[in-house]
Amino acid sequence: MILPWHLYLMASLYILAGLNHFRNPGMYIKIIPPAFKNPKLINILSGAAEIILGIFLLLPFSSHFAAWGIIMLLIAVFPANLYMFQNKKAGFGLPRWILFVRLPLQIVLIYWAYQYTF
């Protein structure tokens, strides 16, 4: 079965982002709010989830379950995006408008994933 190109794009983005959690863990650990304990473990789990869900998006029998998993993951990592906006050090020196735009971007990403849930 040939999947639509945008599903391949989504899967690739999540797989690459997940791999980056292991390639550059400090970047992700820095944006985990201090209220969350064990940021190293959270980084590993979220990176692994992105890789696994990205792969499962490419498998027709599991793509709709993977899309729901991505939606849950995007909701789970929202506090990190909010923390980046609120904390100057976690924001990597990016302009505040970019950090602000990232917040509603989560809704766009959730909507994109939702397109594959059925």
TrEMBL record:
Pfam families: DoxX. Keywords: Membrane, Transmembrane, Transmembrane helix. The keyword Transmembrane helix applies. It comes from the Bacteria. GO terms for cellular component: membrane. It is a multi-pass membrane protein. Its main location: membrane. It is found in: Membrane. The chain crosses the membrane at residues 6-22, 42-59, 65-85, 97-114. The keyword Membrane applies. This is Uncharacterized membrane protein. It comes from Flavobacterium anhuiense.
